[in-house]
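Lab meeting minutes (informal)
Scribe: AK
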Amino acid sequence: MNVSFTKSGMHVMITGGSGLIGRYLTSLLLENGYNVSHLSRKQDQFGKVRVYRWDPEKGILDPVALSGVDYIVHLAGANIGEKSWTAGRMEEIVRSRVDSAKLLHKTVTENNISLRGFISASATGYYGALTSEHIYTEDDSPAGDFLGTTCRLWEEAAGMFADSGIRTVKIRTGVVMERSDSALARMLVPARFGLFPILGGGKQYMPWIHISDLCSIYLKVIRDDNMSGSWNAVAPEHVTHRQFMSTLASAMGRKGFHPPVPGFLLKSALGSMADVVLKGSRVSAEKILKAGFRFEYGSLTHALDKALGKE
């Protein structure tokens, strides 16, 4: 049974609540009558919710933080684009996701905390950094590259909650459209000077989603007891990198200069991390649509207009 609009007043704990998605999701949940708290390794800047400190690396989490919590939304994890992918950084990216989920599960099970649901972030990187004609669905297998392996291990860690009989959902997220603290924000730096560079061949697809739609998916997942397993969180409109940059130029009212940036230059500068922007395939939104979700920002033009403050 769909239980939409019946769960306000329940307690949602968010890890990584001070990040981009966490801030927007916190506001949406508060607006809809939920009690919200955060788990954070540092002083949370949000200011509207109670913050509990934890340290997944040291295995520190006071069970009191989870007392009375109905849902955990697990967003914590090292930013994949923040630093170069050295061997140590790659290990940190994986461990920050996996070890934190393991600590949450250990605390929940050892203290008999009755969760109604565990919702974990994941990413469309599950399908790998590659460009193909295949349209990936939730039934596809994970890729064997670094992104695919990271997401597989991330989701397997979340799967411990499912094995414990707790409804578990994994949200495979595309590139998030939001003006600050996002991939779009980085694109806007050269765009302000009329530069809209084309990375590599420009034929790689960019699965994307507006921040408002992404947070609405999380809200739907909390409300709908029928939802479990993996779900793609991407808009239904497929665009290539070249099409994205052209649409961005139009949204900014610029004719735009599109200088090519050869892939070998990016690989020389970024190493294997360059594959994140040089490769990409289409990802299906069909499953979430069939579950009754309706995108407010289903077209890239609409999403960019909103992100740029044009509406």
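Next up, CB showed the second protein from the same session:
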Amino acid sequence: MQMSGMAAARPSRARLLFTVSLALATAPAAAETLQGALAKAYQTNPTLNAARANQMATDETVPIQRAAGLPSLNLNSQFNENVLIPPGQFIVIPRSANTALQLQVPIYQGGLVKNNTKAADARVAAGEETLRATEASVFSQVVAAYNDVLRDTQIVEFNRANVRNLDVNLRATQDRFEVGDLTRTDVAQSEARLSQARADLRNAEANLIASKERYIQQVGEVPAGLSQPPPLPGLPASVDEAVEIAIKENPDIAAATKTSEAAGFDVKAARAARLPTLSGFGTVNRSDNFGSAKVPPGLALVIPPTQESAVIGAQVALPLYQGGRPSAQIRQAQARKTAAMENQIATERSVIQQVRAAFASWKASLDVIKSAEAAIAANSLSLEGVRAENGVGNRTIIEVLNAEQELINARVILATARRNAYVAGFTLLAAMGNAEARDLNLDGLSLYNPKDNYRKARGSFLDWSGRDAPMVRSTRTVSTPAQDAAGAIAEQDAATTAPK
């Protein structure tokens, strides 16, 4: 998928979630956008593809349940060759063939087929909502992995720059110690801080490698030159607004509602076991002895070589006593209906908690960004002053080292807060039901519509219809190279840098 196909914006869409900024439009061709990563995951992520296949299997429950109410036609044929005929037989038929054509027509089954079919339809609808939730979950993981790579790349860069600065500082401290300007304590402090910085760098590089591997797991490709993600429009103004939208749009709530509806039809279907059933039948029989019938001499009996017969009728079955099984099945279905209703409330509670927590995290991260930006400005000014004062002997080496560390800490906090704000914002949109493929403006992709397969499955009445042979659409990652932290800064510099 070419990036240009992902980057074309369509502002006319009512629910457009992602807009393409001028910086993205002018990004190098080698850079990857968030939209591009999401599009690749949409096509090749195995979790999402498996969810689609499972939904196809759920679709087939509708024709399976409906088939119990349709006529059935069976042909039975049997050939007999009498290889040993006992003595004393007056009529001997050495060989024969019997063929029977049987038609069964269900007329009334107490509502069993109707309610089972309605339950299957409701579960298909629940599955479609679950597929929506899976899409949002996969996209949330892609967004998190994408931003983790960006954050950890920056943190590695900060730590590498810190190691370089502390290395220069140690050499300068040693030179000043040689001329008697500083003490051995100053040198030891510089050496300790450099060793700590190198350890921090190794940890940061390990975190970056882990983030890259998570990105590969979700997207299926190695992250290369990731561009800064575009803003997230459509975020709510208040937590109450977010909860109100989530109650209406969240796919988990919708799936739980449909599942509860299906359980209600299961109760009605269970009651059918106590009701009478009516069916019609018809049978056509043909017997053929191939003219081989042998009659004793003098017996005035003619056996024709073929005989045909047909019968039609109706059958009524009225259950009188079944050992209490129907009542137990009804009570079981009612208990499951109760459980489904309780799960509906539990799902709603969970969604409300997710929305409120994501909203709070998003708002808090925005505040942290402002504080971190102010801290970086203040720490930069402080570091410049401490270095100048150290040059004239008014500040110690440890004060310079502390000022440098405080600046790095503030930069790490800012990078982390930016990541947290974006991920929390996207998580909030996902909980509100607005972070699926249909919302993300993934241009150039043909979006999967589960209703297409459902209509095909529901319209199938033939025993010999089928679908394409099973095939894997997801990409394997075994051939991708093991990631390292080398070249992280060069890759990031080649992509669009974050706006200040």
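CB comment: The first strand starts at residue 72 and ends at 81.
No objections, moving on.
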